[in-house]
Design a protein that fits this description.
Structural class: little secondary structure
Helix content: 10-25%
Order of helices and strands: EEH
Number of helices: 1
Strand order of the largest sheet: 1-2
Number of strands: 2
Low-confidence stretches: none
Strand content: 5-15%
Largest sheet: 2 strands, parallel
């Protein structure tokens, strides 16, 4: 099994009733089958599902994310291990300048 692959943790009764919603909530009822880990009643999050230490905080592309807020931030990025994510506050003109400089420095931008 892929070390980063986890089951989809659904709230108890999420498939049966739309009103319950899909967001995870811990089952707290006395007779809840999911709470007592009955087979076929869905998975509950636990420590064993955590990613290995060397894979934590990585983007799915395998790079570590670095927030870019200006042109000088590009100089601090190691293009072998890190990729840039341009801050949402950056406007169109500065974004274009950052993208051009990133192309020169061969830096991957996650949100062009």
């Amino acid at each position: 099994m892929n070390p980063r692959r986890k089951p989809k943790f659904l709230r108890h009764g999420a498939k049966a009733r739309k009103a319950v919603g899909m967001k995870w909530r811990r089952p707290r009822g006395r007779h809840t089958k999911m709470k007592i880990y009955k087979k076929g009643k869905g998975h509950m999050p636990k420590v064993g599902y955590g990613a290995p230490k060397n894979l934590r905080w990585l983007h799915p592309s395998g790079f570590r994310e670095v927030l870019i807020q200006n042109l000088n931030d590009l100089n601090k990025i190691d293009n072998k291990k890190e990729a840039g994510r341009i801050s949402h506050r950056i406007g169109k003109k500065k974004r274009q300048m950052i993208l051009e400089k990133a192309k020169e420095l061969n830096i991957k931008i996650l949100n062009p």
